Amino acid sequence: MKEVAVIAFKQSYANYIKASIEVYFGNKVSIKAYSVSEIDSKDFIDEKYIVLSGFIIFKRVYEKIKETSVLQVIHFTLSQQQADMLKNVPTNNRILLVNIDHRMCMEVITQIYEAGYKNLDLVPYYGDENSRDKSIVTAITPNEMQIMPPGIMNIINIGDRVLDVNSVADLAAKMGIDGIFNTEEAQKARNNVLLTSDGIEKLLGDNENLSEQIKALIELMDDGIVLTNLTNNIYLANQKAKAILKNRSEIIEDFNIADILPELKIDITGDSKKQKTIEKIISIDGVNIITRVSTIYSDDTGKCNIITLRNFDELEEKQHMIRSKISGTKHEAKYIFSDIKGESAKIKETIMNGVRMAKSDSSVLITGESGTGKEVFAQSIHNLSPRNKFSFVALNCSAIPENLLESEMFGYEDGAFTGAKKGGKIGLFELAHMGTIFLDEICEMPLTLQSKLLRVLEEKKVARIGSLKLIDVNIRVIAATNRNIKELIKEKKFREDLYYRLNVLPLEIPPLRERKGDIPILIEHFMKMMSKKWRTSPAALQKICKYSWPGNVRELRNVVEFMCNFDKDYIELLDLPKDILNEKASTEAIRMEHSIGDNHQSNIMFLLREGKRFELFEGILKVLSSEGDNNQKWGRIKLEETLNEHGYLFTETEVRYGLRILNEMGYIKSTRGRGGSQITSTGFELLGNIITLKSVSK
Q: Strand pairing partners for 425?
């Protein structure tokens, strides 16, 4: 025999529910009634089928319920006799409806109105004396006399409500029991239940006959969908809704919506002339959810609610996709910080600052000479920021004519000006919503437009040309310039207030001439990009490193592409572009080169180009320099043995290769036969560079 546990706060109420259920099930099931306090003393509820009188009971006993248990929340309604008791209630005065809480008051009021007594002016009362209208002297209560306020002259106690037939049918279906209405006693009880002619079962169908098509339809929807009946009990919810509400309750069907989403405060007892659809943003587990409650009315009375739940962030992502499709252009950032090549202290510090700025949402102003990679840094900041799922929209303020720049930035409406595109156009600020807008060459923006930009940044709203409607935009601004903004401010060519609004996080990109040690790394990187490989003569390397690079990294890339087109394995001095060959070193460049050392740049170039053999060259040079007499010559076999003694495990082929390359570059002098090898002065310099590089990289 199937065992059922009935749980309520009071033992007497649990006994009443048990007796009501037994009328329908007879001896087909074994039912035991429990108070909540009795359940508290148990480890688990042993019965498989558990009947609860409300959501608050579920929360109280949740930890005692086994995973295999089957739950049923039962609901109550009015009987025919209770409805008849209201026939003689006077309709010319306001009447209190007394029950244990506001929700239960509204549930009974709704059922009374459904019974046809819409002419009664019912006021909920649940024990709050401060807000009670003391002039009301008539009250109706479903047997809650313990909270009846004083001063009530006319009390209509309609008694405990009866079991809703739908709850009984649901419980029978879950237990797989048929024929619960076949007995005379069950038929009598069923006929005593007040049946509404136009209730929720007429609108959506009850749990027994709800069509599979409707279930399938709401499952296909991207939004969470919750359907409630006339008393706001949840009839149906799709998986999306259950996922959104899972931390509030793993089970939501059959519970009242006020228990699951108390923020909504749904009232369907009002007339249909009032607003039928209400939207509200609430927070569920830290996630912003847009809720929309649509009430279905019949005969000017609310019958049920359809509640939609939409994740605000997911909605923003969809809008971002739609805006991108409308514009017909992909606005994406392709660069990340690892794409910025260099090992110099200056570029490493700049990258580190950029990484820190990516974590913030403040405006960034990037300054640096033309060709230093300002947009690469801007894209990298965006891709590391929380906005990386959304658009990176770049706008070069100097590339668009002044009369078109405003329409590009803010968009325009249909017919806004002569030549305007039919249907209007979305602006770049709208496209960048939730993402980042990069304003390159910001100093070239006209003063009139600078003031409009400042207002957009302050108010976070844009208005298309030809429209008064303000559109919310949530964007991060990264601006860039190669000009001296402070000088432009002094000359009244740039707004000082806009400068301070943009310059929250300043980022200065160093020119290539200040990080010449990165030139070899950049050349290697560009060669890989172009699928080319060549070596450079010492004279060409020295000239490359002494060049001032006014075009910075962009110019270096062009030079590498220039040399790749020679299709040569070895680049000599005269193969370099004329701009490099013909440059006369400035006094500052000569001073810098002197402080660096004549051979330093060539040495760095060599080491980074041969990076994988770094340890091989270090070992050979260390051994060759280990004897005080620089004139001593080492034979290859002796050199190999000494290398092994020092822990360098190189093959004979590797040692031969190392000796050949070092000899070709002039770092050692080798003679054929038994002449051996010895280190040169430039070899000692190279060894010093190796030791320095290793200490810096640690």
A: 412
Residue 636 burial (10 A CB sphere; 0-12, 13-18, 19+): middle
What type of residue sits at position 477? V
Q: Under CATH, what is the fold of the domain 610-697?
A: Arc Repressor Mutant, subunit A (1.10.10)
Query: How far is it, in rounded angstroms, from Cα 9 to Cα 49?
Result: 18
What per-residue confidence (pLDDT) applies to 187?
Answer: 87
Query: What topology is assigned to 337-508 in CATH?
Result: Rossmann fold (3.40.50)
In our burial notation (b when 16+ CB lie closer than 10 A, e otherwise), range 398-416 reads eebeeeebbbbbbbbbeeb
3-class SS at 186? helix
Report the alpha-carbon distance of residue 171 to residue 198 in Å, rounded.
Answer: 23
pTM passes above 0.70: no
C-alpha span between 550 and 496 (Å, rounded): 29
| Cβ(427)–Cβ(408) below 8 Å | yes
The pair of three-digit structure tokens given for residue 225, joined into one six-digit string: 């969908």
Q: SS3 string of 345-376? A: HHHHHHHHHHHHHHCCCCCEEEECCCCCCHHH
CATH topology of domain 201-314: Beta-Lactamase (3.30.450)
What pLDDT sits at residue 360? Answer: 94
Token pair listed for 652: 């004979």
CATH architecture type of domain 2-77+165-195: 3-Layer(aba) Sandwich (3.40)
Query: Percentage of residues in the chain with pLDDT exceeding 90?
Result: 35
Report how far residue 688's alpha carbon sits from residue 676's, in angstroms, rounded to the nearest whole number: 23
Q: Is the pLDDT of residue 349 over 50?
A: yes
Residues 6+ away with beta carbon under 8 Å from 553: 371, 372, 373, 512, 522
Q: What is the pLDDT of residues 67-114, one digit of tens each?
A: 889 999 888 999 999 999 999 898 888 999 999 888 889 889 988 988
Average pLDDT value for the chain? 83
Domain range summary for the chain, segments of one domain joined by +:
2-77+165-195, 80-160, 201-314, 337-508, 512-604, 610-697
The CATH code of the domain at 512-604 is 1.10.8.60
For residue 10, the 8-state DSSP code is S
Encode 411-435 in three state secondary structure: EECCCCCCCCCCCCEECHHHHCCCC
Q: Which of 237, 240, 295, 239 is nearest to 268 (CA)?
A: 295
d(CA 294, CA 204): 14
pLDDT(623) > 90: no
Residues 381 and 478: beta-carbon distance below 8 Å: yes
- Specify the amino acid at residue 156: I
Does the fold of domain 201-314 match that of domain 2-77+165-195?
no
